[in-house]
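Input:
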Amino acid sequence: MVLDTFLISGLFHVVMLIGLALLLHLQLGLSRIANFGVVGFWGVGLYAFGVLYVRVDWPFGDPIQFVVCAALATVAAGLCGLLVGWLIADLDVDGVMVGTLGFATAVALLATTEQDLTGGALGMGGLRFPYDTGDVAVNELIWLLVLVALVAGILAYVWLVHRNPYGRLLIAIGSNEPLAKSLGKPATRTKLGLFTVTSALMGLLGAMYGVMVRFLEVSSLGIELTLAAVVGLVVGGSVRVLGAVVGVLLTVGVFDIVIQSYIPLPADWYTQTIPLLREVMFGLALILVLVFRPLGLLGHMRRDRLMKRIHGA
Amino acid sequence: MVPESTTTVRPELAARTAPRPRLTLANVVKSFAGRTVVDVEDLSLGNHPIEGLIGPNGAGKTTLMRLIMGSLKADSGQIRLERAGHRDVVLSRLHAHKIAQCGVVKTNQVITDFDGLTILDSLLLSVTPERREFPLHLMGERATYEEHRAEIERQLDHFGLENTRRLALSAGEKKLVDIIRCLLLKPAVLLLDEPTAGLPGEVTQKVMDAVDDLAGNGTTVVIIEHDLDVIWNLCTQVTFMAEGRVMLRGEPSEIREHSTVVESYLGQGHV
Amino acid sequence: MPSPGGLASRNLGGPGRLAAAAVAVLALIWMTGNLSSVVPSLVIGLTEHAPLVLAATGFALLYRLTGLINVAYAETVTLGAYFAMHLNTTYGLGFFAVLVPAGVLAGLLSVATYLLIFRPAKLRGVGVLELIIISFGLSIALRYGLQFVFGTPVRFFDVPPPDSVNILGVGVASFRLVALISVLVLAVGLYLFIQRSRYGLMVRALAGDEALAQVSGIRPFAVTVLIWFIAGLAGGMAGAFYGVGSSVSPMLGSRVFILILLVVLVGGIWGLNGVMVVGIGTGIVLAFMTLTLGQVLYAHVVLIIGFLVVLKARGRRLTESTKV
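Output:
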């Protein structure tokens, strides 16, 4: 395999979005928490990691420095999840939407204003891989593999959740919260716990992205990331384990890998036309899928088949 | 306050000798948009195994049940639960899920279900203990079913519900599932809001048998029912409500004879 | 959408009132500490942020009467600005000559999105959450479609440089003053239309109970189309005012959208009047904080946090009250 940097960063982006879409599947697909601020939690992870890594004078060197900073960034994103989750805990869909979107907006604004820490609109460098093989392409490939391992872990977790009482609880709360409460299920606490943990993991993915790009830009905190995760999940199937994977491959995968790496186009198309076209297509895909096939390509949850498989006919 | 030591009493003995779980409502008021829907000064449910709650439409019966369940919050007043072997609890101060955890559960008048969950899912949800629903507890599914298989199958047999690995289809099935998941919770107080509406006659009988059985084992049952024959046959105490207030309380025979009830209620074509 | 809490909606709940009072007291203390900034921020807030009131009123109308959070409303605002700018620069028409046509075009666009997307979706039984995501998709498609057509660089209206008028010691561009007056006239007109006119009555009846409205001889379809048109009209005109005040870009609407959303959700607690009052208040607070903090973005952050806290204090009753 040729170590094409374009291809590696494209793959990194796709795998990261699969991770985000899987986490969004737990929030939106199962528990029906309408998180329109995915980029906010991811961004807190990204910037907390970057600022801690670059601005703080750590007494230890790299593998540990990365682990400590990434752990703190994850915790920071988790705390934001807890706070935002608490704010929106007893609001309806509209309130949840405004709360999460407002949070993401606030994160982007603060990343811009706090120039001393974040570099503001100019961006911030100084990040590096926690190891060095001497070859950037190899470094990036290794980092991609680390991410693949993490996202595979998330996928395995989601798979297990569907097959255990916890998943049933999430589905029940998402489908009929008052009924779940009337059966003694602590719906608010459960949602808050889920939102905290999934937000934290979104933050971890942000931190890993920071290492990959090694340069923080405020422009990465725009709505595009949230859109990509939502489109991937919705197109693939928001209630199925593999929906996020299928959907992200078909949307982000097509644009960021197939078109970017394999379709011969005039050079300026890649920088000018394709990114715009990508967002327009994503927006249209959301509309078409939700109007004509609301549950996405993979369709219904099929708990019937799952129950048969686990408990026999 | 009941001392802690009474918890050592054998449960089946306690069921027979100890007083039943009792709900006490004091000055419970609820209004919507300035209109008082419930205004109960003093009501105690649980001195009898099966209590009936009757009254014309809009009398506040369902609202009263929702206030007890905590899915609505009363504007003022107090709802207490007294239960042998347990501390008294003021339900009106608790969150809805805590009230259910205290053993007060309710079946729904309107068809209520979890979209996407199978019948078996619904039943397992009821019996799953909280520790198994922890996010990192990822091995509990089979064990939960094995532990509760006997009682789940007993209920399914009783109600003649088959093939549970599918979504509930008809309204009647959903209603039955709603009732069974409450029974599986082994409630201290079971509130039934029109349990037989929309069910065929023979199934109604099965529901009544199950309710009778439950009441015989120490559960307090409160039932709202438009089919008054069910009330007269099943209940040992009947409360008549109108305009949010408790108008009359007494044995079924007394209430039945009372002119107010006959006029305001049976006169409306419910004979 | 019938609501059990309808009449009670004018009263803030206990925690809500407490939070609002606390915010007000803190704001007062802070303002007295920066007295010199109070007058300028009043003037700037009223003139510069007047379009916010108009945009929020239009959005509130749509939200309260159809129950839909329409994210693509942001692009209605943006497109209003583009329509006005295009008419202005292509045909050399003055700003006030293009204001109404631009508003009408935006209104028609708004109706088109209803007919082509939201109505079919609703008829197919798509849920509330899905409708929001659909409007999100539409918003993105329109925003980037605009960038595709017009490119990213900002564009400007071709209007004569404004003469400055001195109000209470603050220099204000004369057209901003006219803008303020027009915005207030439009917003009040909209309010009167909804509250007083025959059509307004139909609109409110439809929002209350569709079935009942239908038997009373109201045609839900026609009235719903009317609502979408008026909302688009208000949004488009707001966009034109925003555009002439600074510049026109594909991001114009989405930049102010979160503020519109928060003003409508929080102000909506007190009804349509509340939306206007909170909209005006937001403009003033925004101007004041920009002057004292020296950074307009901080003002946005503080406002977002403040509004979210009010929503939290308000809690679940949000749903019941804002959709009547």
